[in-house]
Amino acid sequence: MNNKLSVRTVVAIGIGAALFFVCGRFVAIPSPVPNTNISIQYGVLAFMAAVFGPIAGALIGLIGHALIDASYGWGIWWSWVIASAVFGCLMGFGTRKMTLADGVCGKKEIIRFNLTQLVCHVLCWGVCAPVLDIIIYNEPVEKLFAQGLVAGIGNAVTTAIIGSLLCVAYAKARPQKGSLAKED
Amino acid sequence: MINIFNYIDRPSPIHRLTGATKLVCLLLWSFASMVTYDTRILALMPVAALILFGVSQIKFRDIKAVFWVTFVFMVLNNVMVYVFAPEHGVSIYGTRTVLLTIAGPYTVTAEQLFYHLNLILKYFASIPVLLLFVCTTDPSEFAASLSRIGVSYRVSYSVALALRYIPDIQRAYHDISQSQQARGVEMSKKESLVKRLKAASAILIPLILSSMDRIEVISNAMELRGFGKGKTRTWYRARAFRAADVVCMALCAALLVLAVTDTLVRGTRYYNPFI
Amino acid sequence: MKQPVIELKNFTWQYNAQKEPTLHDLTLTIREGEKVLICGPSGCGKSTLAHCLNGLIPFSYHGEMRGSLHILGRETSELSLFDVSKMVGTVLQDADGQFVGLTVAEDIAFALENDNVPQSELFRRVDAAAEQVNILSHLDHAPNELSGGQKQRVSLAGVMVDNVPILLFDEPLANLDPAAGKQAIELIDDIKRQTKTTVIIIEHRLEDVLHRDVDRVILMQDGRIVADTTPDELLASDLLRAQGIREPLYVTALKHAGVALRPDMGLHNIKALRLDDGQKAAVRRWFRETPPAPEPPEAPALLDARHIRFAYDNGFEALRDVSVTVRKGEMMAIVGRNGAGKSTFSKVVCGFETQQEGTLAFDGRDLTELSIKERADHIGFCLQNPNQMISKVQIFDEVALGLVARGVGEAEQKERVEHALDICGLRPFRHWPVSALSFGQKKRVTIASILALDPEMIILDEPTAGQDFRHYTEIMEFLRELNERGVTVVMITHDMHLMLEYCRRAVVFADGEKIADASPADILTDPDVVARASLRETSLYELAVLCGVDDPRAFVQRFIDHDREVRER
């Protein structure tokens, strides 16, 4: 990959970050834990990374998450912002072989997508985010790993459902070859 | 349309600084607040931030809502830290001065309280400057600023595009959500978690598929107007640095240098009043 | 003779993904300073031709090209997209897609920024371009603070700022209300005259484009040019009807009156039209001899909204004391410019927003108590863009969505879905994925998904936006059939033809108030209402005046009724 992004990737990053932002900021799905909403934006991020690749994935996570934090005003939580970027990037690498844009999305692709997202979530919320938090804030290890675990499980579940549905819907919406016959 | 980023246009010296300056200052300041745990420096930073707020003519009522959200978040976080590790302060500062015993492992030590004070100061050292940045920087100038500090113009423009299309996507989300609700799609607590997520996807799928079409249209439009042609581009909203900009960046750089040298010279990030 | 600026010779283009070429063997010359209209039905290849002219083909879309295309004497395939974009400036149909800046000024500057033009020069050139399209006072505005017409003017300034010799407009009227469309055509014409630019307009709304003169019309069909002639010649021929393009209403009226059309009558514009006394008498005779249509009996009220007031959280008062009655079995329109309150009104009716004052009754029952979901059992709401409503891969599942959510049993689900698909003519496709359907068919899927809930009334937001005449007719005839089955149909629109041709009554909103509630003919002949609602007076009225008809308003009504009757036969 050279360092020159195509115009389409630039636009995908912009629109992807806007989608990540809107989903993270305005889509409220109540979770079983009081006062906590489920973050569905990671399903969107995983999907966008699978379509547009690792660089787009990383930047969508970085920009989208930073914008969410900035709009709440509680400070940009760099450790978690970076973890989002890492997630997008790893997701993009892990799904390189998927060709959703050609309309290919069968069982094999869905399994690949979900295995990748599971590994990526474990790495990001189980390792990347807590370690950065320890370095920056030196908060207790137990608390950080507990937080990471909860976030990781939640994000993996939403990604599994929303991300997979998006992949299938997108692949099906791409121009298909082959013929369809009308029925009476 | 809600002003999501809360930019408030007032005639103040802070507003007159270029966006690039404020971005550099924000980054230097944030790094400084991340590096150090020295109580003296951490105490100095909120005071300085408060003065800056005065200069910027941003009033407390402008940021009241955000302030309380942050405040609750901070309290919750402190409670969680205490619940998970009531002896964290002891392990950092190396002494144990028990003030009060609650129950089981939960005692209150002077070290733990001091650690919480530092944690709170750390929030107050970093959050106000971000708020200040958001309130005083025109979103229009932001992309030009990123490009100015060395980020590639393509990535900078991605950020501009995100800011440009957030309101449009928000409106589309709103419309889709209403029409799906009318058809009976529900995301309330009455449904199971998996059902709620499936309901969410009934809104997200049309939103994201129509956004994919939009990506196509916008990239065509941008290519037709020569985006990506050269190695560089100019920015309508860019502004030249003036003396005040240089001074501000130098002061913030000095702050970071202070934080780093303090840590290196003393060999620790912490200021320890217990020994 | 002027220099040719665009020359196609035996030009053929085939997309990689397609079996057949989209453009076949085109030969066409456009000369410096000409103003050319390219028209044709959807799928005729006019958009593909536009892509060829602005360089997206072959640089962004891939396929096979034969023959030659010269722009300003240079073969495009040997240039780059950027070279072509320096010669041809494109104003796209989707003004929101083209508006990439955060403010008006930044967007106009975009092309220059990419060219590394120094900032001092940016300011000067942006101001000059903004002045030319009359948007200078809005330089700091964000796109969501502008109307559709203003956004389009920004797009135009954004390409003019680069001093391009050729301007290409891709369906400039598609997203504008009638008054804004008229202004756009006037602006394009003024700019062409001042700057000597060559102008190419791609559009299927012939009468609206011909509001200002064009030099030539190129008519396309199935990727081929079927006519390349003057507007007068084209209108005197029968080609338009054969290609599914709507002819100007006054031309249709003349044909109804039995007037033989000739190219030398000044047919291209109602203001240029010259009729002799015999022809005028023929029009008057037609008016006298056509019987007025009987008034339909007044049905009882289905929806009764009284004194509705609604203000958004930010204090903006979107509806002020609005009372509207929709009668059972009616097909009516709600018209008005953007932001006039027509969409807000439908949102209040559907329960998406709650009014601060006023009452809503449906079939005698108070609606206020019902939730969004409960109201949807009686009133269906259909968004403008079907892609914003479809969330399932399979058509059957999409139509069943509302039933599943309501816990309807499987057997009944199947029955109701199949019934809805039957009504919408989608039964043969019921096991297809939605993505295999055309835009119009997708629209039907969304309507079917609403009909499955068996509502008494449906509200449609701009049901035919962006559609050519053939698809417009297809969608509207379908809605008319639906209406004949007893479903009450309310359409939010700014399409005057839709209102004239399919509605017996229209309600007009302006600035949050109802300003008229009358027949479309009455509305379109009332200059005050026309101006406040951003509509256009119909050329039929001018024709009636020209021919000395004593009651022009009745003439318009008579024409509509007669035309509807002809169509329904």
Structural class of chain B: mainly alpha
Largest interface: A-B, 63 and 73 residues
- N-end to C-end Cα span of chain A: 51 Å
What's the helical proportion of residues of chain B?
A: 55-70%
Radius of gyration of chain B: 24 Å
Give the termini separation of chain B.
Answer: 56 Å
Q: Assign the CATH architecture of chain A.
A: Orthogonal Bundle
Number of helices, counting only DSSP H or I runs of 4 residues or more of chain B: 10
Which terms would index this structure?
heterotrimer; B: 275 residues; mainly alpha; two-stranded antiparallel ribbon; 2 strands; 69% helix; C: 569 residues; alpha/beta; 6-stranded mixed β-sheet; 24 helices
Describe the structure.
The complex is a heterotrimer of chains A (184), B (275) and C (569). Chain A is an all-alpha fold. Chain A has helices at residues 7-26, 41-52, 54-72, 78-94, 107-137, 141-173. Chain A is globular. The relative contact order of chain A is 0.14. Chain B has a domain at 1-137 and 246-266. Chain B has ten helices and two strands, in the order H-H-H-H-H-E-E-H-H-H-H-H. Chain B has helices at 13-16, 19-35, 39-56, 64-84, 88-93, 110-136, 139-148, 153-182, 193-224, 243-266, and strands at 98-103, 106-109. A two-stranded antiparallel sheet of chain B has the order 1-2. In chain B, helix 2 crosses helix 7 (139-148), helix 2 packs parallel to helix 10 (243-266) and helix 3 runs parallel beside helix 6. The model of chain B has no long low-confidence stretch (mean pLDDT 89). Chain C has 24 helices and 20 strands. Chain C starts with a strand and ends with a helix. The chains are: A mainly alpha (184), B mainly alpha (275), C alpha/beta (569). Chains B and C meet through helix 8 and helix 9 of B and helix 3, helix 4, helix 5, helix 6 and helix 15 of C.
